[in-house]
Amino acid sequence: MRVSNLLVPTLREVPAEAEVVSHQLLLRAGFMRKAAAGIYTLLPLAWRVISKIERIIREEMDKQGGQEILMPIIQPAELWQASGRWDVYGPELFRLKDRHGRDFCLGPTHEEIITMLVKGEINSYKQLPLLLYQIQNKYRDERRPRFGLMRGREFIMKDLYSFDRDEAGLDISYQKMYEAYTNVFSRCGLRFRPVVADSGAIGGSDTHEFMVLAESGEATVLYCADEKCGYAANQERAEAVSQRTGSGGGAPGELTKVHTPGCRSVDEVTKYLNVPPEKIIKTVIYTTEKENVAAMVRGDREINEIKLYNALECVRLDLADEQTVQRVTGAPVGYAGPIGLEGIKLVADHEVMALVNAVCGANERDMHIINVNPERDIKPHLTTDIRLVKAGEPCPKCGANLLEARGIEVGQVFKLGIKYSKALSATFLDENGKAKPFVMGCYGIGVTRTMAAAVEQNYDERGIIWPVQIAPYHVIVVPVSNKDQNLMQVAESIYCDLNEAGVETIIDDRPERAGVKFNDADLVGYPVRITVGSKGLAGGQVELTLRRDGETEMVPLNNVVDAVKAKLKALGEEGI
Amino acid sequence: MRVSNLLVPTLREVPAEAEVVSHQLLLRAGFMRKAAAGIYTLLPLAWRVISKIERIIREEMDKQGGQEILMPIIQPAELWQASGRWDVYGPELFRLKDRHGRDFCLGPTHEEIITMLVKGEINSYKQLPLLLYQIQNKYRDERRPRFGLMRGREFIMKDLYSFDRDEAGLDISYQKMYEAYTNVFSRCGLRFRPVVADSGAIGGSDTHEFMVLAESGEATVLYCADEKCGYAANQERAEAVSQRTGSGGGAPGELTKVHTPGCRSVDEVTKYLNVPPEKIIKTVIYTTEKENVAAMVRGDREINEIKLYNALECVRLDLADEQTVQRVTGAPVGYAGPIGLEGIKLVADHEVMALVNAVCGANERDMHIINVNPERDIKPHLTTDIRLVKAGEPCPKCGANLLEARGIEVGQVFKLGIKYSKALSATFLDENGKAKPFVMGCYGIGVTRTMAAAVEQNYDERGIIWPVQIAPYHVIVVPVSNKDQNLMQVAESIYCDLNEAGVETIIDDRPERAGVKFNDADLVGYPVRITVGSKGLAGGQVELTLRRDGETEMVPLNNVVDAVKAKLKALGEEGI
């Protein structure tokens, strides 16, 4: 392909609407254009990257026995009503009516439709396991679409669904997909980490997220400093090791109300009463669709709302507003405490219950209570792990230090169990002729998101640095002047030779200055650049430059193909 | 792949809802399942066929310089309002609102979005021509979806758009696509014919449809008996050669009103007045959004409403109801005639104007007029070709006989001209720095429809007969008994050998009776079946059967791969 013919509209300026690097660079490097908020057209170079990612995914799914199908994007409401998700999914579900007034939605995910399909076609345990997948546009009507392909309203997903006869079968399917995902992201040349994750709204039990590591990642990953241990979790899910800090300090004293004028925050109370923050009980009021909740963690900790949400088994969890706090505690925000608080659910973190002579709010303006001994003084309805774990804490698996990294979630594997098969009465007959619900798993990869994550992980101030495995082209040939006929001929013949040798090569044949071509090549991020200039040619050589580190060497004309192939091979191996 | 693992749920019964062969067979052979009216899930075998068709399309588009992109399915209403199509498209457009109440539609086609894209990115004639395409789901909310994939509401299309600097450039792009389409359908192993077509609602001038020939085809194709001439047209578009039949019969007589009690139809008038039908002027009343219309053809002809619609340049054309006819002509249906008819647009076919002493309705119950000499007696507002051409008439190009065939439209190439670029102010700068609108073409292939058309063209009473080029697998190996271990081993090793030799092979390893396996193999339509039975094995042979004609031969075990390859090659060449 010739740059003169290719639709790759590079931009000099950073587009104002683009907040993150991948959004900026994919726009600037001419990979995509916006059609509406969160909705993009993928231009030729992006489509090449996507095709490569899709090919790798297909190969790895097929290798594990996956069968590719194509389900509808537009799904009848009846299915979603049957599973109960039509009502709970909320405004993120794009809904529409057909000409006869029937309700449909644009699929954000396909559990319902595939469960009904398998229900209709599979009767016997002999036909299991079954792994079905598709690669397709998905839809999510984000309230505030942003970050380009990272959080769009229309995006490409691979979704695979596994159907097994029992939990043991699901374990095997899950493990297959875990391996397949590891292979997919390795083969895409990305640095990533599978982490224990939260199962969120889809339901189910075990789940891992595959995180592409990048400083700009929206998620925090905690992982064990001991590589042999291998523990890694999304921060929202990381298990806390309860510590007994704050349990020292002598015999339990008597509950005493003290005056703490204007002290609302842990910091203020700490200073005023001269107690360490780990001896303060932080009490935060929430509301759910069922009740009000007072959640307690130590003053030096933060509440992990995902853990709290899961512990409460609620649908909605919101921080209480000022009026609610006033009504529930009888005091303004900043003075809540578990003692004497009634008509509210008390949830304590394990660490809180281990405190001795602690401090908490008195549910009264400007007042706190000291000598709180939770085991004696508090009767929580629920004591569990509800706090956020941070780097530096001990690994829950081996006790070594936890380290922190930022990641972008590009894939997730889930054990669904019988959630959908039960809701939709999808059963098969086991060896004894007994009807049993399918035991299901679901496994997603964000394909467009993977492309964006690859950019977030691989760029510098000049542009994208594509991993060679998913680069839109491997090599760009840049003749420094279009006026020198000899030079152009050499460039053209290198271009042809490389393509004939199976190296995906593009030539920048535009009548532009060399500087413009170099800038565009760096911005787009082709892994290898061959520069054909008159100086080099005088010595029978061209310049080979690696985009990743700028390493440049002169290569004799008769060795270009071999030299390029060697470099690409090395780059590919490095990448993994 | 093993049949025991593959999701290919064959059915014994013909599903009640399926009216056409492709719909019946694709359901029965386990290629697809319905998710909602006109909306289907494509199962693994269908997906393999679709993938093959898509690969062929991509190769042929790329060969002509096409660049693949991916545009959104969900399109903002603003674009459609700008082109004017939001209001005229009608109920076939799926419309929806996002959470902020903004209007969107699901793209039935992508002229607006691509024109705006190119408008934003291409400034100079130097960047033209530009050929952009995508393969993607399209949406059309059919009033009555039917015929399975032939007329669905969600379907896969390839759409390419060409952008040129002028008509000469468009001619070249059009020719490129014409060639590409010819290659695509040839390479799919289909018998087809490109025909001159009507440009319909999309607008534009030149257009050809690519018709897969099949008796069940919904369209009538007229083509010249002289292969050298090569004229072929969709019946809706076929040009009429006006004939002067009915112009004999002597000197023009005097207009005379005659009593024709109860004679409403051409047939009744013919008998009652003893005149041949070609001497009767059939007058049909229509309504458009602008006016009432009286259209006239000879009594032995039929009105071609597409031609009439185009001639009237209207948006809506409907047959007038009884009340309207009564109001406009003053008589019940059956007595309309051009003479004395006022306040209505008169449109005459060429042949009508050539009649001498003809008969027409008198706009009065039970009355007709004789001795009508249109050149003398009728002043039509428009005289043009508005009649339906039929087989047996002369070819408009060479005068030879026209023959008739039935066809299924699977592709269409259009010259759009500047319809969209003008409406959306999409211009480039020419050599003189002058802004000019892009001259556009659009080119569609119905991908799912092509699969269905392949079935309509290739089946027998036992099932589908896939052209080898797009068959889901080339060969099925059928061991006649699963109990004979030696036999199973031989079958397995043939299965492995064929796959290793690059032949896409499946093995029916189910513990079913041989008859069930044969029936399923025939129903699915694998081009070649290798039957491994004990009788043959005793002589060191297996049976090789061609699905198309049932031709069977015994092949020595050591020659299976070569024999299969030779058969597939021959089948592939036959197909084209």
Automatic annotation (TrEMBL), chains A, B:
Record's subcellular location: Cytoplasm
Aminoacyl-transfer RNA synthetases class-II family profile domain residues: 33-467
Gene3D superfamilies listed in its UniProt record: Anticodon-binding domain (3.40.50.800), Bira Bifunctional Protein, Domain 2 (3.30.930.10), YbaK/aminoacyl-tRNA synthetase-associated domain (3.90.960.10)
InterPro entries: aa-tRNA-synt_IIb, aa-tRNA-synth_II, aa-tRNA-synth_II/BPL/LPL, Anticodon-bd, Anticodon-bd_dom_sf, Pro-tRNA-ligase_IIa, Pro-tRNA-synth_IIa_bac-type, Pro-tRNA-Synthase_IIa_type1
This protein's UniProt keywords: Aminoacyl-tRNA synthetase, ATP-binding, Cytoplasm, Ligase, Nucleotide-binding, Protein biosynthesis
Gene Ontology MF terms in the entry: aminoacyl-tRNA deacylase activity; ATP binding; catalytic activity, acting on a protein; proline-tRNA ligase activity; transferase activity
Family matches, as SUPFAM superfamilies: Class II aaRS ABD-related, Class II aaRS and biotin synthetases, YbaK/ProRS associated domain
The protein's enzyme class: ligase
Signal peptide: none
Catalytic activity, as annotated: tRNA(Pro) + L-proline + ATP = L-prolyl-tRNA(Pro) + AMP + diphosphate
One GO-annotated biological process of the protein: prolyl-tRNA aminoacylation
Record EC number: 6.1.1.15
Entry's Gene Ontology cellular component terms: cytosol
Predominant localisation class: cytoplasm
Family from the record: Belongs to the class-II aminoacyl-tRNA synthetase family. ProS type 1 subfamily.
Subunit structure: Homodimer.
UniProt remark on domains: Consists of three domains: the N-terminal catalytic domain, the editing domain and the C-terminal anticodon-binding domain.
Function description: Catalyzes the attachment of proline to tRNA(Pro) in a two-step reaction: proline is first activated by ATP to form Pro-AMP and then transferred to the acceptor end of tRNA(Pro). As ProRS can inadvertently accommodate and process non-cognate amino acids such as alanine and cysteine, to avoid such errors it has two additional distinct editing activities against alanine. One activity is designated as 'pretransfer' editing and involves the tRNA(Pro)-independent hydrolysis of activated Ala-AMP.
UniProt protein name: Proline--tRNA ligase
Organism in which the protein naturally occurs: Desulfallas thermosapovorans DSM 6562
